[in-house]
Amino acid sequence: MGTTQLESVPEPKYWQLRTALTEALDSEFSVGEILPNERDLAARFGVARATLRQALEQLELEGRLQRRRGVGTTVAPPRVGVAVGAEQHTWPGAADDAWLPTDCVLAPPPAAVADLLETGRDEPVHTVRRSRTTHLQPVATELLYVPRRSVPALPAIDTPSGTARARAVLRELQRLPLDGQDQSVELGSAGAEDARELDRLPGAPVLLVTTRFCTAGRTAAVSMATYRADTCRLTFGAFGGVEIHHDPQRHAS
User: Fold this and answer.
1) Which of 8, 62, 70, 168 is in the most buried spot, having the most CB atoms within 10 Å?
2) pLDDT of residue 18
3) pLDDT score of 253 more than 50
């Protein structure tokens, strides 16, 4: 089998146009400004409208543009910084937690989660659903899986399901000494339920953050959070990550 020389493969035309549009967005347009219509843009850059649409879809995917019915295509604001890692590890539901619990059910988790929790694949665990908003905009949804062994006092609480049950699980979880946590991040696609909560279409790009919380040498809980990839960027560490801003006031000479 021959070796492909990637350096010799030309960029697709829509990608070249995407680069030119990015430069125009940085130098000529302000946040919230409406772009010219597709016909005028295609004429300006000398491309077919199909090529233009591909480039616009790519920039929308990257969070640089927003398309709204009845308005048109506008320049999107910078991505919202969403802190994921903290200087000190804490249990979910701590006082400064940005997540809002919405529901809790007792059900078997996905097989991969059961393996992390070291529970039987058919063994029900507490599944807490939480949501997160920033500037009144939904940015993430989460499923927190907690085995019954981590919250042994919970059966005495007469709250079968719902938000109250979710808060009870979180409250009991915080009674454990937290040894540490580890995280992984990967790119994925929004399922139907997550897409509905995040106000996106199914299949929209998302960032999947899996966090494993440990105590006494065992996994005490597993969080699987889904973040909108088009409107937020994840930050880690004590200082909130690196800020990069596009200057909407800078104009081309």
Assistant:
1) 168
2) 92
3) no
3-state helix, strand, coil split of the chain in percent (to 5) is 30, 30, 40
Answering whether pTM is above 0.90, one says no
Q: Give CA–CA dist 200/18, Å, rounded.
A: 23
Count Cβ atoms within 10 A of the Cβ of residue 126 and give its class: 0-12 exposed, 13-18 middle, 19 or more buried: buried
Helices and strands (H and E) in the chain: how many: 6, 10
Q: What structural domains and CATH numbers belong to the chain?
A: 10-75 (1.10.10.10), 80-235 (3.40.1410.10)
Question: Average pLDDT, stretch 99-117?
Answer: 93
Q: Which tokens sit at 40? A: 């005028």
Cβ–Cβ < 8 Å for 107, 124: yes
How far are the Cα atoms of 18, 69, 201 from residue 50, in angstroms, in the given order? 13, 19, 22
Question: What phi and psi values does residue 17 have, to the nearest 5 degrees?
Answer: -65, -40
pLDDT above 50 (res 252) = no
DSSP 152: T
